[in-house]
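Give me the fold.
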Amino acid sequence: MTGARTARGQDRAPSIRGAEVGRRIGVGLMYGLWRPRVLGAWRVPPRGPVILAVNHSHNIDGPMLMGTAPRPVHFLIKKEAFVGPLGTFLKGIGQLRVDRSTTDRTAVTQALGVLENGGVLGIFPEGTRGVGDFADLRSGLAYFAVRSGAPIVPVAVLGTAERMPGGREEGTGGVRLIPGLPPLRSRVDLVFGDPFDAGDGSGRRTRTALDEATVRIQERLSSHLENARRLTGR
């Protein structure tokens, strides 16, 4: 029974030590290859649970945030990335594997475990890589915020969409384009916003309450992105 409890505990709360190792690796890579400019990182609460809601236009957005955030971050990452050595590495640095095609209860439990233990959960609320404008949000962010009571800190990553030519790869869905990397030593801006609560104070967790929270979240994230673009000139 002890082993079973230990295994469940490990599934519930990925290693904070692993996430700190991932942060140190991210610091070396991101500052070594590009020139991140971090604005407003002091707005991230220094302790306690928090959710970083990040726009997503390039695959390096997650590593870039891991290397520039003031605290170690556990990201929800699509299961397709957890293949071979990369999958082992991602698990080792405390990242969370999620199946986006269904309600992944294991991923939900792990993510809530991160927050219950006072950690930082990173989410791309658009669900997948796109233009990175927060125009289409999924309800997962609202669920985690309302369920845990953790504040949301909006994060705008700007500059990763300014890419060198990419490539193409074959997959089960046919040929798809691989986005190129931003030019080496180019500037990438990361702008942290003020933390806010997604709930309305009632404690409701109904579908209606989550839908209303998603609308409030989208308004706050879109406003932050607009302000970040104005601030950075992007």
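The helical segments are 2-12, 16-33, 61-66, 84-92, 105-116, 140-148, 207-232.
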